[in-house]
Design a protein that fits this description.
The chain is mostly helical. The chain contains six helices and three strands; from the N terminus they run H-H-E-H-E-H-H-E-H. The protein has helices spanning 3-13, 19-22, 55-64, 71-78, 82-94, 112-127, and strands spanning 39-42, 69-70, 98-101. It has a three-stranded antiparallel β-sheet with strand order 2-1-3. The longest helix is centred in the last third of the chain and has 16 residues, at 112-127. The radius of gyration is 23 Å and the shape is elongated. The model is unreliable at 5-14 (pLDDT under 50).
């Protein structure tokens, strides 16, 4: 048997890591219900503790080390379910490894009469009337 054949066999028969193992059996805390558009970035010095993290958490930290990603983007890049990513992010936030910025809430409905008055005023300024 060649080494190439052995590698292929190991790859095909290797067991998948159950998702509850990745999440370390934890559930998502109620105060950490991240939306798809929640923005995540690494805290300064987070890479120093990366060696002690689970491989999946290290992958997430590597992704967000130099920039910002949404929770949905992190899930897409890691190919892990969104729920598992949310649990990993909650664990990392508890450890102070990441900074979480929640999305801006939808704007409240504004009074159309007020907006029309503002637009009319701006038009008068522009035309000099």
């Amino acid at each position: 048997m060649h080494d190439d054949d052995l590698d292929g066999e190991l790859e095909l028969t290797a067991p998948l890591v159950p998702l509850f193992v990745i999440a370390q059996g934890r559930a998502l805390p109620r105060d950490s219900e991240y939306e798809h558009t929640t923005i995540i970035t690494a805290q300064d010095g987070a890479q120093a503790t990366a060696r002690t993290l689970a491989p999946e958490a290290r992958t997430v930290l590597d992704l967000i080390e130099v920039g910002f990603l949404s929770v949905a983007e992190v899930a897409a890049h890691t190919q892990l379910p969104l729920g598992i990513i949310r649990i990993l992010l909650a664990q990392m936030a508890e450890e102070g490894l990441i900074h979480v910025r929640n999305p801006v809430p939808h704007a409240e409905r504004h009074d159309p009469v007020l907006l029309t008055a503002v637009l009319d005023g701006l038009m008068r300024i522009r035309t000099g009337a």
